[in-house]
């Protein structure tokens, strides 16, 4: 996800030495019916901070994390709890039923969370 005009999801760091003014943005998409089926869209370094034991094979789609590809994923509520402990705040959240156009079962429920962390 891009933030403030960069492709990395972080503000520009002109000094190269500090994280002053950095904003970390993470998108978490969950298939709630299956608590271990979720995807995290963020810089790989952020995902590894959140999930330090994530397997390399779980990083798919341009480096984004897919819990379905991980051997021992946490359930999504544990991921959200860990992110809050790391200083993230839920900036936005949405939810809805499945999408039959892409073969989703309408009895499933998906949620999308945007979590943001500002570093001083």
Radius of gyration: 15 Å
For CATH, the homologous superfamily is named as GTP cyclohydrolase I feedback regulatory protein GFRP
**Count of alpha and pi helical runs:** 2
Q: What is the percentage of strand-forming residues?
A: 25-35%
CATH topology: Gtp Cyclohydrolase I Feedback Regulatory Protein, Chain: K
What's the CATH architecture?
A: 2-Layer Sandwich
Mean pLDDT over the full residue set: 80
**Inertia-based shape:** globular
Structural class: alpha+beta
CATH class: Alpha Beta
Count up the domains: 1
Q: What does this protein structure show overall?
A:
The chain has 120 residues and is of the alpha+beta class. It has helices at 44-50, 76-85, and strands at 23-31, 38-41, 59-60, 64-66, 89-97, 109-118. It has a single domain (23-118), classed as 2-Layer Sandwich (Gtp Cyclohydrolase I Feedback Regulatory Protein, Chain: K), CATH 3.30.1410.10. It is built from two helices and six strands. Mean pLDDT is 80; it is low at 1-17.
């Amino acid at each position: 996800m891009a933030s403030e005009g960069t492709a990395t999801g972080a503000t520009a760091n002109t000094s190269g030495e500090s994280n002053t003014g950095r904003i970390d943005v993470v998108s978490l998409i969950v298939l709630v019916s299956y608590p271990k089926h979720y995807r995290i869209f963020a810089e790989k370094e952020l995902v590894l901070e959140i999930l330090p034991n994530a397997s390399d094979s779980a990083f798919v789609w341009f480096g984004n994390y897919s819990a379905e590809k991980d051997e021992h994923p946490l359930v999504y509520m544990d991921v959200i709890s860990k992110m809050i402990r790391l200083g993230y705040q839920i900036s936005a959240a949405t939810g809805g039923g499945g999408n039959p156009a892409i073969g989703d079962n309408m009895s499933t429920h998906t949620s999308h969370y945007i979590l943001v962390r500002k570093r001083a």
